[in-house]
Design goal:
Elements: H1 28-52, H2 61-64, H3 66-73, H4 75-104, H5 110-128
Helix pairs in contact: 1-3, 1-4, 1-5, 3-4, 4-5
Length: 142
């Protein structure tokens, strides 16, 4: 570790950085965060389906484009989708951890994995139902 003293008086802010008070507004960045979380949930679900001994469902365009479509829908739909992703993450993370811990002890928790897989599918389908029927694909940002 470097023990050189740091003179805060000489420090300059990073390029483009401005200190602001209050809550950050992420805009497009929050859509990217939702996309990453959505993708991670599907990766976890694939692992759960493998433990359950079932085939994972293919990522259809409807499923794959969900974060962008729901971003475009905005309003209450986006808020519910973001909350739904957080809730599903709160179920999947400890569930997958428990399944992996059981497997590490030599137990094959296929019944528990199948139950978690069904919960994932039900929650995901409920979130997909938030997409307005008139929406076929996300808007392209230029």
């Amino acid at each position: 570790m470097d023990a050189t003293p740091f003179n805060h008086a000489d420090a300059r802010p990073l390029s483009g950085y401005q200190a602001r008070a209050g809550r950050a507004t992420f805009g497009q960045g929050s859509a990217s965060a939702l996309s990453m979380k959505w993708s991670a949930l599907h990766d976890a679900a694939t692992a759960v389906s493998a433990i359950a001994g079932t085939e994972p469902l293919p990522l259809t365009p409807e499923v794959r484009n969900f974060p962008a479509v729901i971003r475009d829908a905005g309003g209450w739909r986006r808020e519910l989708a973001e909350q739904g992703v957080e809730d599903l993450t709160a179920v999947m993370e400890p569930g997958l951890t428990a399944l992996l811990a059981a497997m590490a002890r030599g137990v094959v928790p296929s019944a528990a994995a199948a139950a978690l897989w069904q919960e994932f599918l039900a929650a995901r389908d409920a979130m997909l139902a938030l997409v307005p029927e008139s929406t076929l694909s996300p808007r392209r940002m230029t």
